[in-house]
Amino acid sequence: MPATVIVGTQWGDEGKGKITDVFADRADFVVRYQGGNNAGHTIIIGDERFALTLIPSGVLNPGVTPVIGNGTVIDPGVLLEEMATLESRGIDTSLLRVSANAHLIMPYHRKIDALQERYLGSGEIGTTKRGIGPAYTDKYGRHGIRVQDLFDPKIFRDKLAVALKEKNKILVKLYNQLAMDAEEIAAEYLEYGARLTDHVTDTSLLLADALAADKNVLFEGAQGTLLDIDHGTYPFVTSSNPTAGGAAVGSGIGPTALDRIVGVTKAYISRVGSGPFPTELTDEVGATMVEVGGEFGTVTGRRRRCGWLDAVALRYATRVNGLTEIALTKIDVLSEFDTLKICVGYEADGIRFEEMPRQQRVLYQCEPIYEELPGWKQDIGDARSMDDLPPAAREYIERVEKLAGVPVTMVSVGPQRRATLSR
Ligand code: IMP
Fold this sequence. Notes:
423 residues, alpha/beta, Adenylosuccinate Synthetase, Chain A, domain 1, Adenylosuccinate Synthetase, Chain A, domain 3, ten-stranded mixed β-sheet, 12 helices, 32% helix, 21% strand, binds inosinic acid
C-alpha cells in the first residue's frame, strides 16, 4: 500500500467511506486532506451504522491513527462532538491527530455561508451551509485563523478582532443581521482548544516519519473530482481540491510519495446541490436509483439527483487524478433494471464531445450519447467473489474498465464490509 489515495470520481457520495474502511484494515494511518464537516461518510459494521463528517473513517479500525491534515477546515465544536459520539459507542479516538496548520471554521463562516446562499436565490450553489466556502475564502485571503492559534489566546483574540471588524460590517450592513461578539466566540473557541490540545501536532512530520518507517498511509478524499474547485463544474463545486494532487498539498507530504490512486466510482451517478448533470434522470428510473440506492445526503438529508454512469466524466477523472485503478460501488442497485445505459459522449450543436467540453455551457445543453448493455435482473447482494456474479454484471464491469482506461480492482455489492469483491 505504502501511500494510497482514495478519491471520488464523481460529485461525491460514491461510497468512499466504505472503500476506505476496507483498505483501512491494512492501514496504519488514515488521513483527511481537504474539506471539513461537509463530507458524509457512512460505514456499516455488523449491525452498526456510523456516519462520520470530519474524522477519517479509519477511526473505526483499532490501532489506526486517524489524521486531519492541514488542507482541511475544522469546526472544532463539531469535531469534539463527533469524538464524543464515537467514544459513547465504544470507539477509541485517543489516537486522532489534527494539523496545527488546518484552518478553523468560525461561527461567522457558517452564518455567511447560509446568507450568501439565500442572497444567490435561484442561483444558489446548494452548499451544506457548514461554513466551508467562507472558511477557505479567509484562508486564501490570508486572514484565516488556524488550529495553532487556539493555543495562544492573545494571538487568537487579535486575529478574531481583525476578522470581526470586517465580518460584522458584512453581517450588519449587507445582510441586516446582528453583530457577533468577540469575547463570546473567544471563550467558546479557547475552551475547544484546551480540549483538543493533546491531539494537535505537526501532522506533515508525523506522516513523513510514518512513510520513512514503511507504514501504510491511506488518504481519504472527501467530495469528488467534479466538485473540485479547479477541476469540477465551477462554481457548483466545493472550495477545496478533492482530486489526488490535493492529498499531497493537504497533508504536507511530497507528491512522489503517492503510489496508488484508487478512484471510487458508483455504478450510476448522483449529485446533491445545483449544477450541470448531463445524465440526470428525472423519470422513474432516476426515482428507483434514489429509492433502492438510499440516495439521501448523510450530512443534510437532501435527496440526491441520480442518473446513468457518465464515462466521459469518468475518463476525465482518470486523467486529472492519475488513477491507477477503480473501485466500483453499488453495482447491486443496477439489478433493478432490464437494460443499463452508460454515457459515452455528449452531443451539442451537432458536435460530438468525447472529452469534457471546453465550455461548461455544453454540459447543460448536450444530449448524452448512450451505449446500452443488458441488465441481470437478479439479486447479487450475496456475491462474495467475481465468479458469483451473473455474466451480464461481469460484462458491465469490463465495459466500465475499458471506458475508464484503468482496471476495476474492487466491486462492492452491498454496504457491508464483506460485500466487497476483489478482482
Ligand atoms: P460546500 O462544500 O458545503 O461548500 O458545498 C458545495 C457543493 O458541494 C454543494 O453542491 C454540496 O452539495 C456539495 N458537497 C459538499 N460536500 C459533499 C459531499 O460530501 N458529498 C456530495 N456533495 C457534497
